[in-house]
Amino acid sequence: MSGTRAGEPATQSDSRRWWGLVIIGLAQLMVVLDATIVSIALPSAQADLGMSNGNRQWVITAYTLAFGGLLLLGGRVADLVGRRRTFVIGLIGFAGASALGGAAVSSGMLFGARALQGVFAALLAPSALSLLATTFTDPRERGKAFGIYGAIAGSGSAIGFIVGGLLTEYLNWRWCLYVNVPIAIIAVFGALSLLHEQPGQPGARLDIPGAILGCGGLVAIVYGFSEAEPRGWTDPLVLALFAGGVALLVAFVWWQTRAPRPLLPLHIIKDRNRAGCFLTMTLATIGLFGLFLFLTYYLQVILGYSPVMTGLGFLPLTVAIIIGSTQISARLLQHVAPRALMVPGMLLAAGGMLLLTRITVRSDYASEILPALALMGLGMGLTFMPVFATATAGVAPKDSGVTSATVNTAQQVGGSIGTALLNTIATTSTTAYIAAHLTSPAGRARVVAEGTVHGYTTAIWWAAGVMVLAALVAGLMVTAKAPNHESRTSSPVPESVS
């Protein structure tokens, strides 16, 4: 294609690489927004399919469990069988699972379809990021490409709320799943015509023991966090899941030092810069996903917004993330060290969180919520783009998929932890507030509303602290220099070796 042999990165004269970025971004947007697009539609789906309150969480959890647990395996599959091939298979499978979910006639059918979506998303997300990393190798173009990708990754969840609200209010909840089908079809045709095939390694094999240990450990931990919210942190099942997950991951690390073809070569996470990026991403998404949860309920339940208005309420966050990624980070990363963007980004996000700790049952959106969302968005935009670019720079081609999967895993696990941890803090604080302030049945509604907001603000304080911790991690661990300050390579981190 355009004079480029299979397996080689696109050359600088290949103008179609930017159209390829559109296809990669479209697929990534579909994967990220699907984690939240059904959230606003969940009440309608629950009523339509007769789900119980205890089981409704599985519409979300089934997706995040399969997605987060299988990402490492999906990244290694992309390395072994070819990234474009894995990308296309992921798109087709995701579209089929979405159609199945949209046509669901029972709650079990919907849960199964959502889990299947997660399986194919675990193939799609790492292959998309590794295609991006191997297509854009020039430092200047790499900054622009990763700025766009970071904007999509950071704002996709917020866009999901907007799209979910529009589809639910003007069509029905099933279209929150059906909408993926035409998007995936466009992306498949675009991938086949615009993206270069990068073949896998002939004769290579998957690390099956590593896959079982690593994926099993991640699934157990993500499942444990999802069950901590309804059951409580001291529930025997939750404790057993955490203990089992940690034990499996310890065994996974031990096996990776001995496996002939490891699922996750440990030199990838031993690199200080990559490890710092992975941990920063995890901490950043803990706070971000907690914000999504609280703000959705705050706008709808406390302030009485409709699904569409709730979705539009997240629009300033989305716009700010895009500006931060494409107009600030992408322009500055060639001239400053990655942590010079990541540290201020996390501090800005923490500042936005602190503004939200002042909300009450009668807060004004324009004066109290909008400024906080703008700060949060700019902070996330400054952070996500250098995280993606730095974590995937200089990786040996054979490890590109699994490195990309590790970044996505950090994001997914952080989101799962944030949702469960901060929701449990909020619920506990709300219960304590109501118990202390409810003196007569006459004022119950007012006290419950005030207690709910008190729970949100308490959890947001914790989220702000997590953001500050992310800034500290980025400042201490990510020591890579600006690309144009490197003496022998254009990559911000050293190339990985076998």
Broad structural category: mainly alpha
By DSSP, the count of extended strands is 0
- Rg over alpha carbons: 22 Å
Shape, per Cα inertia axes: globular
Mean pLDDT: 82
* Helix percentage: over 70%
Number of domains: 2
What does this protein structure show overall?
The chain has 18 helices and no strands. It has two domains: 402 residues, Growth Hormone, Chain: A; 55 residues. The N terminus and C terminus are likely disordered. 75% of the residues lie in helices and 0% in strands.
Question: What's this entry about, in short?
Answer:
This protein is mostly helical. Helix content is 75%, strand content 0%.
Q: Any descriptors?
A:
single chain, 498 residues, mainly alpha, Growth Hormone, Chain: A, 2 domains, 0% strand, globular, disordered N terminus, disordered C terminus
SSE inventory with pairings:
Elements: H1 17-33, H2 42-49, H3 58-81, H4 83-102, H5 107-135, H6 139-170, H7 175-178, H8 180-194, H9 208-231, H10 236-256, H11 266-270, H12 272-302, H13 307-313, H14 315-332, H15 339-356, H16 365-392, H17 400-437, H18 444-477
Helix pairs in contact: 1-5, 1-6, 1-8, 3-4, 3-5, 3-9, 3-17, 4-5, 4-8, 5-17, 6-13, 6-14, 6-16, 9-10, 9-17, 12-16, 12-17, 12-18, 14-16, 15-16, 15-18, 16-17, 17-18
